[in-house]
Automatic annotation (TrEMBL):
Full protein name: DUF1818 family protein
GO BP annotation list: regulation of DNA-templated transcription
Coiled-coil region list: none
Domain of life: Bacteria
Pfam family for this entry, one: DUF1818
Protein species of origin: Prochlorococcus marinus (strain MIT 9313)
A molecular function (GO) term: DNA binding
SUPFAM superfamilies noted in UniProt: ssDNA-binding transcriptional regulator domain
Length: 125
């Protein structure tokens, strides 16, 4: 089992739990994810943070940026400036038995959670 957490964020992975092996959480919320939901969310957040990193040198100190991306079943938004940002995610339930959820990580929990996601993404690749 892998468990990482800090102020305002939490990530736990337990491959022994077949149906929902991943738990993500923030301030006052948490959701268990399937492996497919987790892998999709990871790639989405990695891509969003990569896009932000590419824009950092183009942004003035007082400029803000809002990056949104959708990759079924997720929608995500990175909102902030060149140094700090928040991250909002929505799991879009589709169909009769599909789940839906919404969560967000504020500054600096968003950066810590994204770093944890990237670390597990890089490790899994």
């Amino acid at each position: 089992m892998i468990q990482q957490e800090g102020p305002g964020w939490r990530l736990a992975r337990d491959p022994a739990r077949k149906a929902f092996p991943v738990l993500i959480g923030g301030e006052g919320w948490a959701i268990e994810l399937t492996q497919d939901e987790w892998q999709c969310l990871q790639s989405l957040v990695v891509e969003l943070t990569d896009q932000h990193q590419q824009l950092v040198d183009q942004l003035l100190a007082e400029e803000s940026v809002c990056l949104e991306m959708e990759r079924q079943p997720w929608w995500a938004c990175l909102d902030g400036d060149r140094h700090s940002w928040s991250l909002q995610v929505i799991l879009q339930g589709d169909g009769e038995k599909a789940r839906g959820a919404e969560g967000c990580w504020s500054v600096p929990a968003a950066q810590a959670m994204a770093t944890a996601m990237r670390t597990t993404w890089d490790f899994d690749q």
